[in-house]
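URGENT: need a sanity check before tomorrow's submission.

F., can you look over the NAD(P)-binding domain-containing protein record below? I want to be sure the sequence and structure line up before it goes out.
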Amino acid sequence: MAYLVKQSDRAPAVTSPVPVDESLPRACVIGAGSSGIAAAKQLYLAGIGFDCFEKGSDIGGTWVLDNSNGQSACYDTLEINTSCPRMAYSDFPMPADYPPYARHDQVRAYFEQYVDHFGFRHTITFDTTVEDVSRAADGRWDVRITGPDGTETRTYDAVLVANGHHWDPRWPEPAYPGTFDGEQIHAHDYRSGDQLAGRDVVVVGAGNSAMDIAVESSRVARTTTWSVRRTEWVLRKFLLGKPSDQVALPGWLPWWVTAARLRIGATYAGSMTKYGLPAPAHKPGQSHPVQSDQIRERLDAGAVTARPGIERLDGDRVVFVDGTTAPADLIVWATGYRVTFPFFKPELVSAQDNDLPLWKRTVHPDLPGLYFIGLVQAIGAVMPIAEAQSAWVAETLAGRYVPPAGDVVRRQMAAEHRRDTKQFYASPRHTMEVDFDHYLWDLDRELKAGRERAATRAPAPAAEPAPAPRGGGVRRTLARVLLGAARWRAVGEVPQRGVLVGAPHTSNWDWVLTMLLAWRYGITIRLLVKKELFVGPLGWLLRRTGAVELDRKNPAATIKELLAEADGGDPWLIGIAAEGTRSRGDYWKSGFYRIARQTGLPITLAFLDVPSRTVGWGPTFHPTGDVGAAMDVLRDFYADKTGFNPEGFTPPRLREEDRT
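C-alpha cells as predicted:
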C-alpha cells in the first residue's frame, strides 16, 4: 500500500539508555536536520556507537526559521507541500491536531518531540562544524571537527552525510546581461514580507518557494511580477476536499501509473497559459511537481503579473523575452540550490551540475563506509526516505544486511540512472529525483534480499555461477506462494553461514520442498540426487535447477568438489536434507550425518512433516559421534516445531552407519 502514517503507528517511547555494542563499527553523522536525526535515531536504537555533529544549536535544519547554523532557507509563511501522514516518520505520526499541511514551526516542534521521544538528544554535539572528511590510511574515515573545545580529528568506520541540499544558493549562470540599480537576493535569504513591503518586486523561478514569495509579495509590495523561464504544471494541494497527495498508489506499480496520476492532477488544476505563461514543454510527471492553491487566486485578482523569462536587466526595470518590461527595485532569485559538500575535497566527492551517482541514492560504490542520507529530490517527502535509508545503513553496520556484489550494484545504479533520465527532463533539479512510494518499496525489497544474504553469510558472487541456481526475487515469490497455497508452515531459523548443499534422494517431496525452502530464503543450493532420478521430466527439471549426481559410494568427495566451486572463501559448509517425515516410518535418514563426520563440517537439517504440514530448518551442530546426543537434539527440536513427540523412534540407520 501507499505510505500513510496513522496515529496507531506511534512507537513506545524509549525511556532507558540503549547500550552501545562496542564490537560494531563506529559512525559519524553530519547534520541534525530532518535527515540527520533520522540517521541518529536508527544508529542509536541499533546499539551502534556514533557522533552526530550539528553546526548550529538547533534541531531541524531548514525547517528552523533563522537557524543558528546560518543555512536555513525557512521563511515565515513556509508550510509543507506533503501532507502530514505522508511526511511523518513511519513510527512517529505528527500530532493529530496539526492541519493537513503543517507550518514550519509545527514541523520544527515535531522534530524536537521525535528526538526526545526516542531519547537520543544526548548523542548530538551542537555548535560543532565538520571541517574535513578524508580517507584514513587503513581505509576508515578521518573527520576533522571544530567546536567549543577547539579542533580535533576523530576516526570512524562509517560516515553518514546528512548536511542537506537546500542551503547553497544557485544564482543564474551566466548572469543576465545589463545592469540593475536595485537590490538582488536569493530566495534562501528571504524571511518575511517585510523585505518586500512597498517595493516593485520581480520573483524569478517556477518552484514552490517562488510561488510562495510571489503570493506574499502580492499582498504587501507595490507591484509583483513573476518571471518563469520554463513553465511547470502547478498542482493543487487539495482534491475533493482531501490532501491531493493522499490519492496515492502502491510503490510496486510502474512509473507510468504515477505519471498518469500526476496528469490527472494537472488536468484538474487547470492550465497556466491563460495567465500569459507559455505551455509547459514537458508532460506532467516529467518534472518535479509544484503545488499552490493561492498563486492562481492572486493571478486572477491581478495582484501578480506573470511574465516569461528575462532577456536583460535595465537599470530600474527588467526586460523579458517577449519584449515586455516591469519596474523593479528588488529581484528575488528563486533559482534553486547547488549540491555541495564543503568538508570533502573535490577530487574525492563532488556533484558536478548537482549530479552525484549513488546506488539507491545512498551508497557511493567507490568509497566503502560513506553513505548519503536524504540526498534526494522526492515526488513526496524526504523524511520517510531518510528514515528508510538510515535503517538500511544501520542494518549494514550491524551485520544484518549484506549488499550484492559490486558489479551488481553498478549495473543497478546505471539502470536507475537511465530510467530517471527517461522519466524527467534534463535539469540540475532532476539529478536526484525519485518517486517516493516506489523508492520506499524498492529499498524495502533490497533490504529483505540483503537480510537473506546476511543470514546465509554467503556473499553474492560477481557473476552467476553455472549451473548453480540463485534465489532471485521471482523464485522467492514463487516459493512463498506455493508453500502458502499448499498450507505448509515454515519454521526454524535460517542457517547463519555457508554454502548449502541438498541431498534429498528418497522421494520427490523431499527435493521439491527442500528447493522451495532454498528459494524462499534466497540460499544458493546444489541438490545431490541419486542417478535414478535423472530421467524424464523430473530429470530435466533437476538439471535445470543445478542438481548434481550423487556418488553413493563416496558422497564426501562430491561435496568437496562443490566446496571447491563455492565463492566467498567460507571455510566450511552446511549440509541440508529433508528429514523427519513420519509418513515414512520410524527413523531419520543418516546420510548427511555420516558425510559430516567424514568431512568434519557442521550440518543443518531441513525437515518436513507431512501430517502437520510443517517444513523448516532444524538445528546446526557438529557431529561428534555421540549418536544418542545428536538424536536427542533433533527429537527435541522436531517435537517443539511440529507438536509431535516421537518417543518410540529408533534410528537404526544412524547406528548402523555410525559403526561403519
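My own read: The chain has a mean pLDDT of 81. The chain is about 30% helix and 20% strand. If you see anything odd, call me.
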